[in-house]
Amino acid sequence: MSIAIIVEGKNDKSRLRRLLTEDIIIVCTFGSLNTDRLEELKKKIGTSDVYLFTDNDPSGKKIRAILRDTFPDAEQIYTRRGYAGVEGTPDEYLIEQLEKAGLEEFIIYPPMIPTFEKF
Questions:
Q1: Are 2 and 25 in contact (CB under 8 A)?
Q2: Residue 29 — left, alpha, or beta (φ > 0 → left; ψ -120 to 50 → alpha)?
């Protein structure tokens, strides 16, 4: 099973790339979704399972609606309102959303930082 996540921009892609194994295909819309761009996305994705992860702003919602029509079986991943898009979402929240989407086997978890308690 191959998996593709569609994001809006290259910063979103690089943010997720740090958290996901290379097994996951991450493709960008680059904000513009005309017929040619949608066909290009379809070719890149092929028969992969598709996840949509766009920003929670008017532009991201518009892009998500178009992508939902193009990929009706796509799973939806959301970032919280108030974060500066996918690229501005804290890693912890991104990981939580990826886990909710069932992608935990592909997540590269950051190393734990030991905490020191004062006695």
A1: yes
A2: alpha
Structure tokens at 1: 């099973």
Give helix 58-70 / helix 35-45 axis angle, nearest 10°.
60
Q: Do the beta carbons of residue 98 and residue 76 sit within 8 Å? A: no
Whole-angstrom distance, CA of residue 27 vs CA of residue 46: 12
Global pTM? 0.89
Mean pLDDT of successive 10-residue segments in the chain (119 residues)? 93 95 95 88 95 91 93 93 89 94 94 65
Could you write out the DSSP letters of every residue in the chain?
--EEEEESSHHHHHHHHTTB-TTEEEEE-TT---HHHHHHHHHHHTT-EEEEEE-SSHHHHHHHHHHHHHSTT-EEEEPPBTBBTTTBS-HHHHHHHHHHTT-GGGB-PPPPPP-----
Specify the residue for token string 């819309």: 29
